[in-house]
Amino acid sequence: MTEYAIEAQGLGKAYRIYPKPLRRVGEWLTWGRYKGHHEFWALRGIDLALKPGSSLGLCGANGAGKSTLLKVLSGTTAPTEGRYRIRGRAASLLELGAGFHQDFTGRANILLNGVMMGFSRRELMQKTPEIIEFAELGSYIDEPVRTYSSGMGLRLAFAIAASVNPEVLIIDEVFAVGDMYFQKKCVDRIYEFKKQNRTIVFCSHSLYDLRQFCDVALWLEGGKPRAQGDSIFVTNEYAAFQRQHIGSVAEAVHGDIPLVPASARRRPEDMPRILDARIYRLGTDEECYEIQSGDSVEIRVWWKNPRPSETPIQIGVAFMRGDMTTCGGQATHFKGLTLSGTEGCLVLKAPELRLLAGQFLIPVVLFDGEGVHRYQDYLMPQNLLVRAYTKDIGLFRLDLEFEQRRLAPPAPKDAPVEAGARP
Amino acid sequence: MSPEREQALAAEWVTARPTAWREVGLRLVRLPWLVAEHWDLVRTTLKRDIAARFQGTVFGWAWPVLQPLFLFGIYFFIFTEILQQRLGDLPEDKKALMGIYMFTAMLAWSALSESLARGATVIVDNGNLIKKLVFPAELLPLNVVLASLTVMLFGIGIFVLATLLTPIWHAPRLAILWVPVILLLQALFLYGLVLFLGTLQVFLRDTAQIMAMLTTMWMFLTPIFWIPELMGEGLEPYRALLEVNPAFHMVSAWRGALMGDVVVPAGQRVMEPVLVARIPEHLGTFALWAVASYAIGYTFFTFSQRRFADEV
Q1: Which residues of A touch B53 (CB under 8 A)?
Q2: Number of Cβ within a 10 Å radius of residue B52
Q3: A238 and A259 inside one domain
């Protein structure tokens, strides 16, 4: 007997695409020698080993294979390669209300839906009051499901499904619907499952939910695992990736700073410019573009200025998130520095850079002597990837601590100043 | 299933390997146990299926009775009046022969044609269930067959009642004891056909259309509205075809069980369109068909089942 609740090895699923129905007939007639279809791999190379009581979250873009993996694991569709096994009774909630019959009453549908899930009628008769109570349908339970609002249908469906008490629960993103109150109820129910040492696999677009529910996460991209492991790590990787999609960066970054007007008197080679910029671990010569939140780095900028007396320069460096939010930055003119000489290397030291997870762009701006106009926008070719392993939210990790005290709320201020009153 | 067995089963590797012949064989034999195990599901869906036809109608549960009653009325009055001329002088107690001859066969045929029509699309129509729920999908076609047989039984009940309460025909005799056997074989035969067609429809959506045409043809090839004995020489070249037709044996067995022996003078000859003594012979042939149909249909279904969710 295996110690894992869910185990998968090299699991893959391919769909056969037939451009025309006739192609399939052709395959039959030639006993498979003629190949009329092409394969589409919706899922490939999935390895899982989940201990009982753990929970796995799936994230990834639409069409990344999340639902396919859930379908394969729940047994509605067979794998094309690899294998998996599940220990104990598994229940899956791929869609709420699959199998509802619109013309029957809610009560009849409880029975119908329940026997589909493998309950006996007797079990269901016992559970019915509990289900009705959870769904909060009141007297509507004896009306046809056709008359229900979509929220009521969902409540009933979830209530039936929640009454299943499996060792392994496989849930597609089904409770992302319904009102907040009911969502909370569903979430509480799933927490309860977790507490009972049951194994949960679920997929969600909400990274927050994934972090909350799951110990481990799997990020799928194009059907293949892109990252797998600790859920905070994986969701951060995924968040960093999501922020990578950027448009025309230079435009967006410095659109508001005017360029120095081109002058006919100066030849291009006499103009100041930035030669290169790189990130190193602080105090070392080790280049690095992937750090953990809180690591120390330095940014080196090599510049050239053939005529420093005619064109004095200042340099600014910033950290910018993919959505063009400037998270922080510094410039030589803010610090009162002057860059003398015809060339040099400017180092910006960033000890304990506590940016939270994400992909950050590093724009370097070459200003004129006053820091008003810019000569050049230089975008560091490589982005800085920051990973975070803490459950902070926002841009930076701040030293935030909780403390609990026994304090009475402050007494209301006496003689409040009335609006408009003048002393 | 005991919890231990459930655990042991559930912890087996699920692989990409195609279904093995051994497994198919096991499943063929194990069907009765599967049905017993999921009896609650079978019963509930069957009830739903029949109830859904009459849900929201004014007559409600009177419909399964009204339909065959109406059918019976048609055959009894119209066909008896028109066709008794051609049969020559019928004895007084056999006046209704033609009407009842057609009605009994029509009941059995309706169950067949309805099973085929609904069965061909049953897997595709329930695609959502197949994709989203884990349950034995072979119960869907079974449900179709059982529903059509249940409706047929209502009709047979009406017929038996009519023979008891009215003088149109003599009450069923001992031959009616054949009914459970006929029912079982018919269920097996239809189930195999429906499994086969339903599976084929998943991969080839023309199946239902083709089958609708073939069913009509099949109906006219089966002696439902005509009596082979009356056909004379013209039928002889096609006699072998008639003897092969499983539906011929099915309706003949039903007639024998419900009508008893019918021996009437037809012109110069003595006609024996229905004979109780021939029931075992008919059922023997039909049983071969039934077993073959079930074996082929279920085998095809079992091999293809793993691809249903991808195709529906």
Answers
A1: none
A2: 15
A3: no
